[in-house]
Structure formats: C-alpha cells, structure tokens
Amino acid sequence: MSEMKKDELAEDQALMGDEVLDADPLVAELEAVKTERDELRDRFMRALADAENIRKRGERDRRDAEQYGGSKLAKDLLPVYDNLKRAIDSAGEEQRAAAQALIEGVELTLRELVNVLTRHGVVPIVPQAGDPFDPQHHQAMFEAPLPGTRAGDIIQVMTEGFLLHDRLLRPAQVGVSSTPKS
After folding, report:
1. Which of 31, 94, 122, 137 has a Cα-to-Cα distance from 176 of 20 to 30 A?
2. CA–CA distance, 100 with 83 (Å, rounded to integer)
3. Within 13 Å of residue 38, how many CA atoms lie on the same side as its CB?
4. Which helix (H) or strand (E) holds 67?
5. Does one domain contain both 98 and 139?
C-alpha cells in the first residue's frame, strides 16, 4: 500500500507540477488577452468619439452652408442695389415729373431687391451722420475735421453696408470726423 501511495503521490505531484507549469502560460495569455481587450476598447471609444465629432462638424457645416451659402451671390447683387439707389437719388423733381413711370419702376425694382435680400437674411447697415464710428460695421473712407462734431463721429455715408445673418458682407463706407474733442 505504501508503494501504491508513493506512486499516486508521485503521480499527483507530477500532475500538479505540470499544472503549475501550465498555469504560468495561461496567466500570461490571460493578461495578454486583457491588455488587447483594453487596447481595443480604447480604440473603439476613440473611433466612436471621432465619429460623433465628424457628425457634429457635418451638421455645423450643413447649417453654415444653408445660412451663408448664398453670400457670394448676395455680394454680387450689392452693386445692383447701389446703382438702383443712386439712380433714384439722382433724379430731381423735374426728371421725376417727366419720367414718373420710369422712376416708379426703378423704385419698385429696388424695393423688390431689398425684399428678396431680406428674405434670405441680408440686412442693410444704415449709419447716420453723427453716429459713432464702429470698425466692426464701418469702413472709414476719409477723415476730415468738421466743426460741431466729435472725433470718431460719422460725418458722411457713401454706401450702406450689409450683414448676412450675423456675418459682415460689406462694411458701410463712411467719412469720419477728426475734430478733436473740445
């Protein structure tokens, strides 16, 4: 019996030894699998975040294109607005009486152009003489001393400016007073 027990004991030890020897590679393999899992999870989370950022950027670009996509066309139409306005402003009383229908047609055309521009988010910047100069919306074309004004006040408006929603399409071109404050 003792011989049998010795054989069983030796066999058990051999099995256990093999298991211990085999357990080390299993633990190492398990750790490698866990590390790979963590790396894949990290890559997945990064890819998910990138996809979300791309979706948000695409949505923002779509909104911008929708709002500001017509800015080039609107800029190209501004000289038409300026010319129609100059034509109306240059017509004196005598010309208005002689060509009343023509002047009315030009006024209606200007009004319709303003309505179309407004419908698409283009609004005029109409400074008045005496308003303070705002470099965000005005472009100083000249500076001149004018008695009775303060430095930095608008003294003349050459052309109106325009905003497309909240972006500047064209600054208003103005003359600015250089009279020192007294």
Report:
1. 122
2. 18
3. 6
4. helix 2-68
5. no
Cβ-in-10-Å burial (0-12, 13-18, 19+) of 138 comes to: buried
What CATH number is given to the structural domain containing 126? Answer: 2.30.22.10
Looking at the structure of the chain, the number of domains it has is 3
Tens digit of each residue's pLDDT, the chain (182 residues): 556 555 665 565 555 554 544 568 889 999 999 999 999 999 999 999 999 999 999 999 999 888 888 889 999 999 999 999 999 999 888 888 888 999 999 999 999 999 999 999 999 999 999 999 999 999 999 999 988 888 899 999 999 999 999 899 999 999 999 877 54
CB-CB contact of 181 with 150 (8 Å): yes
What's the domain range around 169? 122-182
Do 61 and 82 fall into the same domain?
A: no
Query: In the block, which residue shows the tokens 């100069």?
Result: 133
Between the CA of residue 36 and those of 39, 76, 131, 176, what are the distances in Å? 5, 58, 68, 69
